Amino acid sequence: MSAVKLHDAITGRLREFIDAQPMFFVATAPAGPQGHVNVSPKGMTGTFVVLGEHRVAYLDYHGSGAETIAHLRENGRITIMFCAFQGAPNIVRLYGTGRVEEATAEKLALFPESPDQRAVRAVIEIDVHRISDSCGYSVPFMSYDGDRDTLLRWSERKSDDDLADYRRKKNSTSIDGLPAMS
C-alpha cells in the first residue's frame, strides 16, 4: 500500500492527470459544528482549468442548490478531488481557499473549451495550499461515454430573466439558511 504523497505544486504529470479527468468532486462545509457538509460531482469538458501551480478554477452552473457558494462566502474552505476511473489507480486532492467570482467576460475567457457560458452562475477560483495524491486502489474501473447534455438543453430553453429568477427562487440560500446568490 502506498501512503499519501504531498506535492509542492500542480505541475508535470499531476497537471496532466487533472486535465485528463472528465469529472471531479467538490467538498465544502459551513463553519462550526452545525450544518451540512456538501459534496458535489462536477463535470463537462472545458469547465475546470489549472491557472497556475497553486491556483485552479471551475465554472459553476445552475443546479439544485447553492451549498458550495454559501460555504465559500462564509469561510472559503474547499477541497477538490479527482479519481482515476481508468488506467493506473490514483486520487488527487486539492485543498484550498475558494472564492465566488462573477462570471464576467474576462473570467469566462479562462475557459475557452467550455460547452456553454451563458448559463454559468459563477466562477469558483481556488488558491490551493495543499496538494496530495494517494493510491485509489479501491476506486472501480468505469468507462467514460461522454458528457451529458441535459443541463445544456435545460439552459438553452431559459431566457436570461428565467435564469435570474431561478437563482432568486432556488439559489438565494443554502439548505442551512446561509446566504448564497444575491
Short description:
With 182 residues, the chain is an alpha+beta fold.
The run of helices and strands is EHEEEEHEEHEHH
Q: Give the C-alpha Rg.
A: 17 Å
**Average pLDDT score:** 95
What can be said about the biggest beta sheet? 8 strands, antiparallel
Sum up the overall morphology in one term: globular
Strand-pairing-aware structural class: alpha+beta
Name the beta content range: 25-35%
- The percent range for helix content is 10-25%
How many helices? The count is: 5
- End-to-end Cα distance, whole Å, is 47 Å
Unreliable spans are none
- Would you report the number of β strands? 8
Molecular structure report:
By secondary structure, the protein is an alpha+beta fold. Helix content is 21%, strand content 33%. The chain contains 5 helices and 8 strands, in the order E-H-E-E-E-E-H-E-E-H-E-H-H. The chain has helices at 12-20, 67-74, 105-108, 150-156, 160-170; strands at 5-7, 23-28, 38-43, 48-52, 55-61, 77-83, 91-101, 120-134. Strands 1, 2, 3, 4, 5, 6, 7 and 8 form an 8-stranded antiparallel β-sheet that branches. Strand 6 (77-83) and strand 7 (91-101) form a beta hairpin. It is globular and about 50 Å long. The N and C termini lie far apart (47 Å). The model has no long low-confidence stretch (mean pLDDT 95).
